TrEMBL record:
Molecular function via GO: (3S)-3-hydroxyacyl-CoA dehydrogenase (NAD+) activity; 17-beta-hydroxysteroid dehydrogenase (NAD+) activity; enoyl-CoA hydratase activity
Family: Belongs to the enoyl-CoA hydratase/isomerase family.
GO biological process: fatty acid beta-oxidation
Pfam families: MaoC_dehydratas (PF01575)
Source species of the chain: Actinokineospora spheciospongiae
Protein name, entry field: Putative (R)-specific enoyl-CoA hydratase
Length: 263
């Protein structure tokens, strides 16, 4: 059975505007154009279809552990794209199965808009058996002077993000569901944290030009509670690379973060 899934989607101006507005809300200012992370919103639907095709067994919960996005160009309102996703590999590991997924978004003229690699842990899974290959996460280091800023994910942003990202997992919306999953309260979406950090990075290092971002990635370490201060440290490197980490009072939330800006 093929683990590949594909669907077409017409990108609307409303979905691009609403998503960008939500992820920029902690910064207190608006911006035009698509978020560089909007590609994940489209690919996420395909990843769900791919998960449905995996021979997953056991009492399973999904944990997003890493994300890489290569941005060839921003999404444009009114265009029709094809989103194709599939599984790169899987490996039983400790209390679950680690999975790597790929996604590609292609325009009608055949050009690639964005490509993604998503890492996930299927906690509690006893299958599938090992298959394919788990790619190594890329490592980029900063060499310049570090800059630290403090950001927060407001409580009202979490349900708004759930709507625009089409991710209404109860642990982000229902305190009882979050408690049942072992959290002290609802947690922010990991990708919403990355999206806010991305907007701050673009403002600070690319003069607000989101099209200058050519790639971004991070590893998710610990959950983020809304309203908790996030200490974000950026460190520029060579050839347009900016490394970053995000800390909460409880520890590192995003680690080994990197962004590639046009040079």
């Amino acid at each position: 059975m093929s683990l590949e899934s594909s669907f077409e989607h017409e990108v609307s101006a409303a979905e691009l505007t609403e998503f960008r507005s939500v992820v920029r809300s902690p910064l207190g200012s608006g911006a035009e154009g698509a978020s560089p992370l909007h590609a994940f919103v489209l690919a996420h639907r395909g990843f769900d279809l791919t998960f449905d095709k995996l021979a997953v067994t056991g009492d399973v919960s999904r944990v997003h552990v890493s994300q890489e996005i290569t941005v060839h160009r921003p999404l444009v309102a009114g265009e029709r794209v094809t989103v194709t996703t599939g599984a790169l590999g899987g490996k039983p590991e400790g209390a679950g199965v680690r999975i790597a997924l790929r996604g590609v978004i292609v325009a009608e003229d055949g050009t690639v808009v964005a490509s993604l690699v998503t890492g996930a842990m299927l906690s509690g899974a006893t299958g599938p058996e090992a298959f394919g290959e788990l790619p190594r996460y890329p490592m980029h280091r900063g060499t310049g002077e570090a800059v630290t800023v403090t950001l927060t994910i407001p409580e009202d942003m979490v349900p708004r993000y759930a709507v625009v990202a089409h991710d209404e997992n109860p642990i982000h919306l229902d305190p009882e569901a979050a408690a049942a999953a072992g959290f002290p309260g609802v947690i922010a979406h990991g990708m919403s944290v990355l999206a806010v950090v991305t907007e701050e990075l673009v403002d600070r290092f690319a003069d607000g030009d989101a099209s200058a971002l050519k790639g971004i990635g991070t590893r998710f370490s610990n959950p983020v509670r809304p309203g908790v201060p996030l200490e974000v440290t950026f460190q520029p490197g060579e050839n347009g690379v900016v490394a970053f980490t995000v800390r909460t009072p409880e520890g590192i939330a995003l680690k080994a973060g990197w962004a590639q800006l046009a040079v």
